Amino acid sequence: MTHDLAARTGLPPELLTLLADLPRDGWAEHPAFHGLTSFWLDRHMAFRHLMDRIMQETEGLADGKTDPATFPQRLVPLGRRLVDELIGHHQIEDHSYFPELLALEPRLSRGFDILDADHHALDALLDGFVTGANTLLQSDSKQADAARFHATLAPFTAQLNRHLTDEEDLILPIILKHRFG
Ligand SMILES: [Fe+2]
Ligand SMILES: [Fe+2]
User: Fold this and answer.
1) Separation of 82 CA from ligand 2 center, angstroms?
2) Ligand 1 centre from 154 Cα, in Å?
3) Ligand 1 centre from 115 Cα, in Å?
4) Could you tell me which residues come within 8 angstroms of residue 171 by beta carbon, excluding any fewer than 6 positions away?
5) Ligand 1: distance of its center to the CA of 93 in Å?
6) Every domain of the chain and the residues it spans
7) Which CATH architecture has domain 30-178?
8) Which of 131, 138, 172 is nearest to 152 (CA)?
9) How far is CA 32 from CA 26, 108, 172, in A?
10) Residue whose C-alpha is closest to residue 171's, from 111, 103, 94
């Protein structure tokens, strides 16, 4: 069974046993919630929010609500933040958090392999995002070209959200159980 980011609808049940013990609706009340868990969720929320804003700005351009002349100054800071912060976030996860959390729950190693593969898939999606954004920013007919860029944002957003949710499902119960961080 494939666990490709583009194809899956969640992690397989054998990787979600800790989540069953520590379900999402109890996280905020858990004594170990404040700290790394709340920080991790906040970072993921910020990425979801950034993607929403990029989608909205692109829709505004496509719908004629945004002056094409002002679009670059709207899109560029959002796009830069998304790319820089997501790359930095993945680096911290890959080099620091994932190895330390895997050492606490080695039986979940398959889940860490899936998340690592996701990061590579998201790197390729980020490259496509940068290329698409630059093409639009350099276009002489930005409003007409906005729909094409917007169409590429939907699968990118869906896969980013899939990764963030599955990562939370795997990682946050480990942090809470071991009171890590
Ligand atoms: Fe991640
Ligand atoms: Fe993450």
Assistant:
1) 13
2) 19
3) 6
4) 40, 97, 101, 115
5) 6
6) 30-178
7) Up-down Bundle (1.20)
8) 131
9) 11, 21, 10
10) 111
- Looking at residue 2, what is its pLDDT? 79
- With residue 169 as reference, give the H or E element that holds it: helix 142-178
DSSP codes, 37-76: IHHHHHHHHHHHHHHHHHHHHHHHHHTT-S-TTTHHHHHH
Q: Which amino acid is at 169?
A: D
pTM attached to this predicted model: 0.96
Distance 160 CA to ligand 1 centre (A): 9
CA of 166 to the centre of ligand 1 (A): 9
The per-residue pLDDT for range 79-116, each reduced to its tens digit, is: 999 999 999 999 999 999 999 999 999 999 999 999 99
